[in-house]
Design goal:
Elements: H1 5-15, H2 18-31, E1 45-46, E2 53-54, E3 64-65, H3 66-69, H4 73-83, H5 87-101, E4 112-113, E5 124-125, H6 132-144, H7 150-166, E6 168-170, E7 176-178, E8 180-182, E9 185-187, E10 189-191, H8 197-208, H9 213-232, E11 242-245, E12 250-252, H10 266-278, H11 281-297, E13 299-300, E14 303-304, H12 323-336
Antiparallel strand pairs: 1-2, 3-4, 5-8, 6-7, 8-9, 10-11, 11-12, 13-14
Helix pairs in contact: 1-2, 2-4, 4-5, 6-7, 6-8, 8-9, 8-10, 9-10, 10-11, 10-12
């Protein structure tokens, strides 16, 4: 949805070319059978020819994943806006309404929800992998709707305050981070994927202008600073996939399977948003550090590649240029150094 449907709809919004709208409709119509569940929570996988749908076997007993079914609303609602066909909005409204009625363990959204029973799966809450984009879509759909989607705002505010209360922590040396919750126990680990939250909290503070704004802007600045620290504390000046906070170390990966960097964009998104909101030159400086690090460690003859260990200069590369490197990483870095009037 994000990469194909979102890409087509963005092209349509910029150009007005009907071809892109038609292609988006074609793709989404092929996805609709995945929504045929007792709850309206869609399956993760759908056969585009037959319409048969299922979930990943590893996902908590056949559950759907919060960051997947929660990351449809902007595209589907916009598609209804430009086609006049209400079916797309109806599908995502049903998801939202179902979630709004569910009781949340410890006031947090678990990452897994079973589409048949409507019950939460494994009690794991993360603003990183498996949860991340659900939260930003609530805020961004409120903005995309011209601030008319009050349900999105209410659900975002509630979730953001509960994350602030339960998961936002400050390390002994003053680094703000977002921990994860597993069965009511905190894990003091933050995914690179969660680094978008700096920009999210900053954008919410700026656009809502309410009693939360001062606190949320401080959280935004703190998270973005911490994510920069995760880059700055590596030998390549690239950020690891996940970083931890213990008595002995802060903002560094501990496990080998957390030390890789695959050209992810989340930190750069926060640099860009925070630059636009504050005009603090440090965000451009941090972005330029990242550009140099990408050139030094990731550039190869055929494009750009991830690296297997950010703490090893000249180490092994993964020989993959992820699609989000062009779609997001370079986009945010380009916008970071562009005039506000560009877009």
């Amino acid at each position: 949805n994000i990469r194909y449907v979102g890409g087509m709809l963005t092209l349509y919004a910029f150009t007005g070319d009907e071809l892109f709208k038609e292609k988006a409709v074609h793709i989404v119509d092929k996805l609709l059978p995945a929504f045929n569940t007792p709850t309206g929570i869609p399956y993760a996988l759908v056969n585009m020819q037959t319409g048969s749908s299922k979930n990943f076997g590893w996902a908590s007993g056949g559950s759907s994943i919060l960051s997947e079914f929660g990351t449809l609303h902007m595209e589907f609602s916009y598609l209804s806006d430009i086609t006049g066909d209400p079916i797309y909005r109806e599908k995502v409204d049903k998801i939202r309404n179902f979630l709004a009625k569910l009781e949340r363990p410890a006031k947090l959204y678990p990452n897994y929800l079973h589409p048949k029973t409507g019950k939460w799966g494994q009690q794991h809450t993360s603003v990183g992998a498996l949860g991340d984009s659900f939260y930003e879509y609530l805020l961004k759909e409120w903005l995309r709707s011209g601030k008319r989607d009050t349900q999105a705002k209410e659900m975002f505010d509630e979730a953001a305050k509960d994350i602030e209360e339960k998961l936002v922590k400050v390390s002994p040396h003053g680094l703000t981070y977002i921990a994860e919750m597993k069965y009511n126990r905190l894990e003091h680990k933050m995914d690179h994927l969660a680094c978008f939250a700096g920009g999210m909290y900053g954008l919410a503070a700026q656009e809502e202008k309410d009693s939360n704004s001062d606190r949320w802007m401080k959280i935004a600045e703190g998270i973005t600073h911490t994510c920069h620290e995760s880059y700055d504390r590596s030998d390549t000046k690239l950020g690891p996939e996940a970083f931890r906070f213990t008595d002995a170390m802060e903002a560094k990966a501990m496990k080998q399977n957390e030390k890789y960097y695959i050209l992810r964009p989340e930190t750069f998104e926060s640099y860009f948003i925070m630059w636009r909101l504050t005009k603090d030159e440090k965000y451009r400086n941090w972005g330029w550090e990242a550009v140099q690090a990408l050139e030094n460690s990731c550039k190869v003859d055929g494009g750009y590649t991830g690296v297997r260990d950010v703490y090893q200069v000249g180490g092994m590369k993964d020989d993959v240029q992820q699609s989000f490197f062009l779609a997001e990483s370079l986009k945010y870095l380009y916008l970071l150094f562009s005039d506000d009037s560009l877009i």
